[in-house]
Amino acid sequence: MTSPLALLGGTPAVTAPAPHFTWPHLTSDTADAVLAQLQAGISIYDRSGVIAELEDALCDYHGVKHAVLTSSGTAALHSVYAACGIGPGDEVIVPAYTFYATATPLLHLGAIPVLADCNDTGNLDPANVKQRITPRTVAVMVTHMWGTPADMDALTAITADHDLLLLEDASHAAGARITGRKAGTFGDAAAFSLNGPKPLSAGEGGFVLTDDDEIFYRVLLHGHYNKRCRTEIPPSHDLYPYAVTGMGLKFRIHPLAAIIALSQIANLDDNLHGRQAIATRMRETLRGLPGITVLDVPDGVTPSWYGMVLRYQPDDLGGLPIERFYGALKAEGCLEVDRPGSTCPLNLHPLFQAPAPLLPHRADLPTYAPGQFPRAEAFHRNALKLPVWHREEDIPLADAYTHAFTKVTDHYRDLTG
User: I need a labelling partner for 180 at 20 to 30 A (CA). Which of 7, 109, 213, 407 fits?
Assistant: First the structure.
């Protein structure tokens, strides 16, 4: 049998040399800024220099009162939970479908992560959240998955009705908006990641946003100490005596990472605008292809397009397994198409199925099992993730990727032997 599919001997649809997607977009200005910071100082103990500049920029960009930089998004999440006073016996509703760091800090604070299923967009399902609320529930943490904001109107109403904290894991969603309001500004506090591929990148790093003074002070006490706390917590505050030691943890961002993020934030909206244009172009081509569901973007929502997740529908392609379809795309040269692995329903991780070997002191933790969150598991099982480029010169490459999808769906029968 002959076939135009590259997996079966045809010519690949994508012939551009690798890599096909790199992020962040670094310029000579970034390199100059890093070198200047290297010469100026590689350790900053207080809120000065590039630390103050970047935190001020984050506050201005998001329209919030406080920003605190951290060493990672995981550290930011840990600080948010700790600063909100979440501790032993408290239940926090978290998405079943998210990166595990959304929930793992709770394991170390004595709290209990209560998983809730997702909706058809992959985001936290407000109706399922309602079903998980108990007298021990103190907060709801929502992740804006792959950069598309969750249903914050519904989640805000639920948490308000039940007097719960609303927290945001906006690690994927820097610059994403709902009717103009930025992700990370809806809840009591938000955590962001500045990890390499995130829309706003420092290579490694994170930050916390909040308008609440008490949460801000406790974020400082949790992961910063001495100079920052003595300077930024009022001497009249009840917690000021702990300023020198804080909690004894160090979650500071490195100044070289901070200078990278500072060089990125000035171009964030332009980059996101470019992503939006290319995402629209890609979605128009992909929408309507058999076997491929392009997720709806709700009215008024502007994603950050950290990733474009498509849902594979094998029944539309004669039951062709996703592994075979994915292999055909790779053969076509779509090196950046991904089947997300570690970002998956938390009930599929051994840490949430059988935590005792790593957390023997946490006999109170629930144990989860495959099959408990059918929508999250189905979403993950059938997810294909594409990068979203941002420059006009990348349009031919984006078009080649979508052409590869068209080519494989047109000739799927060649793969069913």
Answer: 213
